[in-house]
Specification:
alpha+beta, 31 strands, 31% helix, 8-stranded antiparallel beta sheet
Length: 808
Amino acid sequence: MVLSGKTSRRAVLAGMVAASAAGVSAPAGAKGRASDNRLWYRKPAARWEEALPVGNGRLGAMVFGRTGQERLQLNEDTLWSGGPYTPDSPDALAALPEVRRLIADGRYKEATDLASAKMMARPLSQMAYGTLGDLLLTFDEAAVPDRYERELDIETAIAGVYYQTPGGTIRREAFASAPDQVVVVRLESEGGKLGFDLAYRGPREVKYTAANYSGSPTNLAVNHATDWAQHEDPGTNGDNIRTRPAGTNVWLITGRNTASQGIAANLTFALRVQVVSDGQVSVSESYVSVRGARTATLLISAATSYVNFRDTSGDPVAIVRRQGEAAARKSYTQLKRDHISDYQGLFAGFTVDFGRGASADLPTDQRIVATEAADDPALAALYLQYARYLLISSSRPGTQPANLQGIWNEGTNPPWGSKYTININTEMNYWLAGPAGLSPCVEPLLRLTEELAVSGAATAKTMYNARGWVAHHNTDLWRAAAPIDGPLWGLWPCGGAWLCNTLWDQYDYSRDAAMLSRLYPLMRDASLFFLDTLIEDPGGRGLITSPSVSPENTHPFGSSVCAGPAMDRQIVRDLFHHTVAAGKGLGQDTDLLAQIETTAARIAPDRIGKTGQFQEWLEDWDDAAPEPQHRHISHLYALFPSSQVNPRDTPELVKAAQVTLERRGDLSTGWATAWRINCWARTGEGDHAHRILKSLLGPQRTYPNMFDAHPPFQIDGNFGGAMGIMEMIVQSWGGEIHLLPAMPSAWPSGRLKGVHARGNIRLDIAWTGGKLMALKVYGRPAQEVVLRHGGDVRTVRLDSCGIYQMKA
């Protein structure tokens, strides 16, 4: 098998961009275009989990594709409740020694009660992310269509709706443009005329159903549009906007977010809709009317007054006016062409093929159901590409990072506040970035960590009298760093350290010197915190954290509060090693790095319990823990995403990890199921990993629009599951690239092109009958790369063009 080269791929992409930008496409099936990179359906979305997401990193929209009344649910990534605040408890430091003493004495309930009273954040909950509301397009003379199809083309990031009625053929397209910072909706009618009214509906409470979700709409309500109206816009020469045939009309909505947890509302927002049409457009206080049109283009811009986590002095009306007016100076064809070109700059160059099953040509919702009965390898490939699409759409340089729902949130009471949960979920969102060629999408996470280090430095001083910075298990738009919710969940000091380790991993894929220069101070200062706060284990086993928890699991003594859980020791060990590597590479802080190295060697080691399991706690408590199948597998951080435990170097610990995985069970919440896939892949058990993946892709854990069904929706399951697919094909750890390390028998032949490995390496790989057939490696000229395939380990040197090629 010969893999296609760079030149031919660029030519194909150029032709595709030009063809796609020329006009609205007919249904893919109707024009015979075969593409595995699309989601498609034969009916409109009845509920939010069936709608299709578009996003540019900052703006998001859910497109329902309805024929009578279309719904566009909108989000802007800085529209959160509250405002800048400092939640650190002034009583925490005085209570810290007593909490540690109570833990050392085994008086866990008393330690928990004291920590609850003195050490937790004030307020106890953080702020929440919310929806911008809905735009509703109510169409004249709506009728049941004769033919209907809607799709999300993830090669162009465009959602399309196509249907035929007695009055003509309707085509609609929607995309979120990063170059122009607007959501664009195009409507066309062939053989008839368009007529519709456009109205705005403010944010609503939404009922979520989940066994372990207890969020309260009362204390999570956000973003009510308290003051919205049609405004006179200077772009219309000061005229009152009424009826202007074949013209451009503007509608502006303004409002304010809500207070939450006693934190005052501090954001204003603006939503601007500009209608460009060849029909008659009129604007009233409550709706926009379009009649007699063959085409209409909606240019939707939105912004808040958020400048940064300390500053909310921005002017959202000026921002949306500037963006909307700039977009209106372009034709629809130009907007579309620029959008596709920008998006392809990130999406292109990565292809995956696992073969096709019998259900590959079914609509996407039917394929998800069918996967319960038979494997659909093309659905797994689509799931991987869809995750890449979602990351590009929810995390771009300059935006906020992807939160628990990316950027797509329906209501005012999002599950778990749709925050940044940094005891697994936020990190999982970014596992895929480096390997899948999306390193630029990591910048928002780096910037969040830089900002969190500022607030976290104050928290470290107030709570622990320590240098450096700390963050616990959650943060929000305002970069709160104190422990929240209660000690059972929040009293965990390693959130900032795990963010640093995640960013180091992403750096290791790109080897971007500019990123390292920003990252090193964060790792150094996070290390300073642990140099000041690690304590000697009373049992003489090494240095440990205290107080802490093993997220979010209760040990046999009625609490989760403890000292030295395995995950903490592993995360801090990685942090210290990464900090030393970065500092030496930059030639900085020689004496400090020596101290960090010495301290790292004293951290208590991982342990195997009496029944052969990988111990979650410093003590051998696992078998008596009240939740033997707990969703978190925190103590297996060392296996994945770290590589401290691996089949090459620590086979006994890998065996213990497999015992733990068997006992925990394969299926849990969406993200927890995804984590298990990665862990089984890291042990080399490809068929076991694939069996779990098949369940993740089924209707119990994947919604019709392929969002992860936690339930309710959390996007980390999508990202984590996609990374599990990658781990079956290529792994990169321990100075080696591992080829087909966990290849499932369900994918006997296939190829993966454009996958990245540590050291700024890119490779194309193909296999047939489960055997490696072709390999092409790209890197620096004369670079040495260590490849492992089965029992074969070889070091290859790239040629003068930075290429190594192998053919069977």
